[in-house]
Amino acid sequence: QVQLVESGGGLVQPGGSLRLSCAASGSGFSIYAMGWYRQAPGKQRELVATVTSGDTINYTDSVKGRFTISRDNTKNAVYLQMNSLKPEDTAVYYCNARHIGIAYWGQGTQVTVSS
């Protein structure tokens, strides 16, 4: 089984930056897809960005041009560089991994964008 552990969340001012990291453990294979989802208060969990082992990347429209996802296939790790943060980016961010129809989730890390 795969365990995902996120880090890098915190409190930042509007316009600031944060870098989220997610490390996968317990896998002896290269995970097909890894990414980030987020859930804000009163809202449904939504996709932020995903990247496959072949480097196919998808972003939700609201973060395009501001966020950058990357991964290290040898480590089964995924990262999210978040720039030009806005208050509406405030949410719990969850690391996600998918492989052969199975989804794995981290426990979440809080990102708060506020003055």
Structure description:
With 115 residues, the chain is an all-beta fold. Helix content is 0%, strand content 55%. It is built from no helices and eleven strands. It has strands at residues 3-7, 10-12, 18-25, 33-39, 46-52, 57-59, 67-72, 77-82, 91-99, 102-105, 109-113. Strands 2, 4, 5, 6, 9, 10 and 11 form a seven-stranded mixed beta sheet that branches. A hairpin with a 4-residue loop joins strand 7 and strand 8. It is globular and about 45 Å long. The relative contact order is 0.32.
Architecture blueprint of SSEs:
Elements: E1 3-7, E2 10-12, E3 18-25, E4 33-39, E5 46-52, E6 57-59, E7 67-72, E8 77-82, E9 91-99, E10 102-105, E11 109-113
Parallel strand pairs: 2-11
Antiparallel strand pairs: 1-3, 3-8, 4-5, 4-9, 5-6, 7-8, 9-10, 9-11
